[in-house]
């Protein structure tokens, strides 16, 4: 009996950083599914990643990489292509045409991983054409961001952001996305906030958090000569990820002895844009000497590096009506896997705080006092044993294993395939 075949449509796929999609493709065969991937051919990887590429990734499944032409961020061509995608859905039309022509065997189901809304149109049209069900997975949606931050670079005129234009673009993306989501057989997303929002469009909406790959991220508790606070990832803006509580704590008299001891260091593994945001803030607190910036690392190297941290830093901000909403970084789950203390500044007072409390992996700081107390506690552990570690709630943590989560994907794929009533009517008609 042959395995069931799923066509995975994705905005990105390794070697570009795409851990959720990579895990699904990696572990689905364990659950009786044969994956085939279709994605964009990425020419300029630095424009698309928020960590370094996965240099060790080996292609052992069929992958169709669709060439949409040169599209380097910041060029006139990129801006025109963005406009063509917004108005005409250019890339999705080309992806559909390419797969209709080149795909060797029709799949049983389509699983579409969408960023903003690409490539939902392709999934809807192919599913209709082939008479098969499809599932949409939406992880990054424009409503989760503060004003304009859903774009890689804000649209400005003479240095001033064009908020009305960006809000119009936002509304257009939401309208297009909802048009297709309402026709999917099921929708999957990454946080309770996302699920509650998208369930208004498609009630058959399911939550599968991001997670960690246990084959890459695991504990290694060994003494380390420095008390290192480590951050990995990007900052889109300080309004979404605000480190000020940490800097206020480190500049306080209560932590002055530790800061001046030459043992405490903060290491930022991030991009140049994030460094430009952070350096003026660091300077305003007089903390330049304890902060060091590094290039992003390939995932395997990053996994080894965070094993040596005394504290793994997560940045967020309190959820508000204008955003951010439902943002749960993959990094928090990888921190769970390596059993290192997590410091979240500032607490979102929402899903990330709840995850930290339920798994007992660290502190979601709402005040400078919270940060000071947590840093002192971790420093005492480091003095006593040369490293820090948290046991956490093991059963809760294991729920976020990527391999286990892919079992949930497989269950939902089986449900839509085993129920012929899930095949819906024309995906170009919508009540939204």
Automatic annotation (TrEMBL):
Entry's Gene Ontology molecular function annotations: glycosyltransferase activity
InterPro entries: Glyco_trans_4-like_N (IPR028098)
Pfam family, any one: Glyco_trans_4_4
Domain of life: Bacteria
Domain Glycosyltransferase subfamily 4-like N-terminal: 19-202
Gene3D superfamilies: Glycogen Phosphorylase B
Protein name: Glycosyltransferase subfamily 4-like N-terminal domain-containing protein
């Amino acid at each position: 009996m042959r395995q069931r075949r799923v066509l995975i449509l994705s905005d990105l796929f390794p070697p570009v950083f795409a851990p959720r999609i990579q895990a699904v493709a990696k572990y689905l065969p364990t659950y009786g599914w044969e994956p085939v991937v279709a994605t964009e051919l990425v020419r300029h990887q630095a424009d698309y990643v928020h960590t370094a590429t996965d240099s060790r990734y080996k292609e052992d499944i069929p992958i169709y990489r669709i060439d949409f032409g040169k599209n380097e961020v910041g060029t006139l061509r990129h801006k025109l292509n963005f406009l063509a995608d917004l108005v005409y859905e250019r890339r999705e039309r080309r992806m559909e045409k390419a797969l209709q022509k080149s795909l060797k065997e029709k799949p049983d189901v389509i699983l579409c991983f969408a960023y903003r809304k690409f490539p939902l149109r392709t999934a809807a049209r192919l599913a209709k054409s082939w008479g098969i069900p499809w599932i949409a997975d939406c992880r990054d949606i424009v409503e989760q961001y503060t004003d304009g931050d859903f774009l890689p670079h804000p649209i400005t005129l003479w240095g001033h952001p064009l908020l009305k234009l960006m809000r119009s673009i936002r509304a257009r993306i939401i309208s297009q996305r909802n048009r297709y989501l309402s026709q999917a057989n099921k929708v999957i997303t990454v946080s309770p906030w996302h699920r509650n929002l998208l369930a208004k469009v498609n009630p058959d909406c399911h939550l599968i958090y991001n997670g960690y790959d246990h084959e890459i991220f695991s504990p290694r508790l060994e003494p380390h000569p420095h008390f290192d606070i480590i951050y990995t990832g990007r900052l889109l803006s300080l309004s979404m990820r605000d480190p000020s509580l940490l800097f206020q704590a480190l500049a306080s008299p209560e932590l002055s002895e530790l800061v001046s001891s030459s043992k405490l260091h903060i290491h930022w593994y991030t991009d140049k844009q994030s460094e430009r945001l952070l350096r003026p803030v660091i300077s305003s607190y007089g903390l330049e000497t304890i902060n060091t910036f590094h290039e992003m690392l390939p995932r395997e190297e990053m996994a080894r590096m965070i094993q040596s941290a005394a504290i793994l830093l997560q940045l967020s901000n309190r959820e508000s009506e204008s955003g951010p909403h439902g943002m749960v970084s993959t990094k928090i789950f990888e921190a769970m896997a390596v059993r290192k203390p997590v410091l979240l500044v500032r607490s979102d007072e929402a899903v990330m705080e709840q995850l930290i409390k339920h798994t007992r992996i660290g502190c979601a700081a709402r005040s400078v006092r919270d940060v000071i107390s947590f840093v002192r506690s971790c420093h005492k552990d480091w003095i006593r044993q040369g490293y820090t570690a948290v046991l956490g709630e093991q059963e809760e943590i294991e729920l976020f294993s990527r391999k286990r989560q892919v079992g949930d994907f497989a269950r939902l794929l089986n449900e839509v395939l085993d129920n012929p009533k899930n095949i819906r009517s024309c995906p170009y008609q919508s009540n939204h």
